[in-house]
Amino acid sequence: MATSSQYNFNPPLGSLTLAAFSRIGIRRTELLSEHMENAYFELNLMQADWGADGILWWTVELVSVPLSVGVATYQTDPKVVSLLDIYINNGSYNRLIWPFSRTDYASLANPTQQGFPTVYWWDRLIQPTITLWEVPDASATYTMNYYAYTQMQDAVPKQGGNANIPYFWLDAYVADLAHRLARHHAPALEQQRKADRDIAYGNACKQVENTAIFISPGLSGYFRNQ
Q1: Stretch 32-59: mean pLDDT, rounded?
Q2: Residue 171, strand partner residues
């Protein structure tokens, strides 16, 4: 059996957009500037919706931040959607630290207490920040490392680039865009395109890290005692 021996299928974003229009009965020769402008907005709104819906594993980045003695708060990139694992390295070993809330932080008797950080508060502002407790002390050179789940790169169909998605998400991308474009240009097909979208998106979401999950109760104190 002769096969292609190729793994290069990655159509440009413009081609994915044309495929979405085709699914709602609009041929490429019928497209106007209005169609493409709607596609541009819906593509980026769709990506924002995907980002809010769950972790898109291909957008996860490892960030390293040197910590300073007596400095509790550090800025994070505004494109960060969520923080995953955070661990502190003291030059000798790593220690995983845990999130706590604004209320937890406000209830601290001594928020400026220095030591090896054990917990963090992520303040989700337009310019988000991470605040550590305990505040880094002078006993070691600390580095904060964290996995950040970031937003997808902007979709810009007219520049000939590709969508910021892996192979397994191509069909979901086209199906979701077709559903959104049906709202503008083919309302009678919206529910059918939604059903197609739900199937394709559900299949794509099955592509996750294949690891076991272990759940055990915490039996020790929440904070490290000095």
Answers
A1: 93
A2: none
Domain ranges (residues) in the chain: 62-150
Predicted local distance difference test score (pLDDT) of residue 63 = 97
- Note the pLDDT tens digit of each residue in 139-192: 999 999 999 999 999 999 877 899 999 999 999 999 999 999 999 999 999 999
Q: Is the pTM of this model over 0.70?
A: yes
Q: Give the phi and the psi of residue 131 in degrees, each rounded to 5.
A: -115, 125
13-23 and 170-185 are packed helices; what angle lies between their axes, rounded to 10 degrees?
Answer: 50
